[in-house]
Amino acid sequence: MGGGLGLSVHGRYRVATEKTVIAMPETKIGLFPDVGGSYFLPRLQVNLGLYLGLTGDRLKGGDVVKAGIATHFVPSKRLYDLEKLLPRCTSESEVNSLLSKFHEPVEEFSLAPHVKHINYCFAASTIEEIIERLEKVQNEWSVKTLKTLRQMCPGSLKLTLRALQRGAQLQLGQCLRMEYRLACRATLNHDFPEGVRALLIDKDNNPQWNPKTLEDVDDDYIESYFKKLPEEQELKFFGKL
After folding, report:
1. Residue among 167, 215, 222, 164 nearest 191 (CA)
2. What is the pLDDT of residues 86-135, one digit of tens each?
3. Could you say which of 3.30.470.10, 3.90.226.10, 1.10.10.10, 3.40.50.1370 is the CATH number of the domain covering 3-73+107-233?
4. Are strands 15-16 and 72-73 parallel, antiparallel or unpaired?
5. Are 56 and 152 in contact (CB under 8 A)?
6. In DSSP terms, which residues pair with 22 in a beta bridge?
7. Kind and range of the H or E element at 22?
8. pTM over 0.85
C-alpha cells in the first residue's frame, strides 16, 4: 500500500503471491500517489494506472501480474524454497531461469471485463470529463467507480491527474523531484492533515476538504503545488537515477 508499493515496484524482479494486495489510496487522505507513483502508474496498460491512482482500487494476487506491476507469480507455500535458492544464483540469467521455474500461470484479469471502459473513461484530460464519461457508460462498474471518486478529496483528484499526466513524459528521477515538491506543499496545506485526521486518527470518516468541490479547485491552485522550491530545498540526487 502506498509507500510499500513505491519501495517494491521499481525493482527489476517483483514477485506476487495469492496473498499480495496492492493499492495507491492517497486520494482518500488528501494526498497523491507518491514514491514514484507518477512514474509507474501512467506506464501501465490501457490507462489502468490512472484508474488505480485516482480511485485507490485494490488489486490482489494474480491481478498484480496481469496489471504489469509484478513480474512473477509464485504461490506463498513455495516462497521459502525460492528464497533459499536465489542467493545461489551467480548471474542475471540464472535469476531469470530460477524465477521462471517458480512462476505459475495466473487466472484471467478480474478487471478484464472493464478494460475497454477504463481505457475510454480515464483517457479524458480532466476529472470532470472522466466523470462525464463514466456517467455515459452506465453499468455496475461505472456506478461504483463514480461513487468512489465522489468520496475522494477534490484537490487530490486534480493534483493526481496532473502529476500522472506529467509523469508519463518524465524519467524516474524527475518524477521523484516533482513529487517531493508536491509533498512539501501538501504537508503545509489543509487537505492532507485533514485527511489523516479524519481517516487515520479520529476515524470519523468525515473529512472537511478545502477546496470543497471539484469546481472550487482551479488551475492556479493545482499549479502552485508544482512550482520549484527554493534551491536549498530541492530534492538532490547523488549518482544516476
Report:
1. 222
2. 999 999 999 999 999 999 999 899 999 999 999 999 999 999 999 999 99
3. 3.90.226.10
4. parallel
5. yes
6. 59
7. strand 21-22
8. yes
